[in-house]
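Worked example (supplementary).
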Amino acid sequence: NAGVTQTPKFQVLKTGQSMTLQCAQDMNHEYMSWYRQDPGMGLRLIHYSVGAGITDQGEVPNGYNVSRSTTEDFPLRLLSAAPSQTSVYFCASSYRDEQFFGPGTRLTVL
Amino acid sequence: AQKVTQAQTEISVVEKEDVTLDCVYETRDTTYYLFWYKQPPSGELVFLIRRNSFDEQNEISGRYSWNFQKSTSSFNFTITASQVVDSAVYFCALSEAHDMRFGAGTRLTVKP
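After joint prediction of all chains, the assembly is encoded as:
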């Protein structure tokens, strides 16, 4: 099993550009989530999904969109990137409240 | 909303010393899970332990041990005989029905 995979590993955007961070898992977990990690603040939940077709907002959802068309994939979209979205993004899937994290995407918005 | 506080921002010890990382949480739910994760310099998040709110038994795994006390809302983590490879940022986290909140993390440096 590959576990949770994320692409790309690194990305640089200009303010106002859009992009999608990809996340996939092969463990057939119903629950998936996106976090951002900023220095000194730990990880904060952006959006989560409890199954295909169901998504909900987390602690810091503004500026991000998600969709869940399949159990395996949970992409995170930035429609108009802002410098405040410079961060490391982690995707996770979970089973019985144990989270399995992807390797992260380091995003810089100039 | 739930909250996790890791008051120790940075800790530095010399190899073979014991070190305890503190974690205090706030929640109104009676059912919740507590976690510890390790983030080494390479950046990935490594799962260490999960405890549910109904199990207050302390746990030991090799040099690692965890002390869960509901009376003080604490879930502290002790590393015995620390090693240089233990150097990392350690996160405590609280999960209620899939809403997971992390503490700000404690950066542990173990010097040889």
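Two points are worth noting when inspecting this output. DSSP finds no helices and twelve strands in chain B. Chain B has a mean pLDDT of 93.
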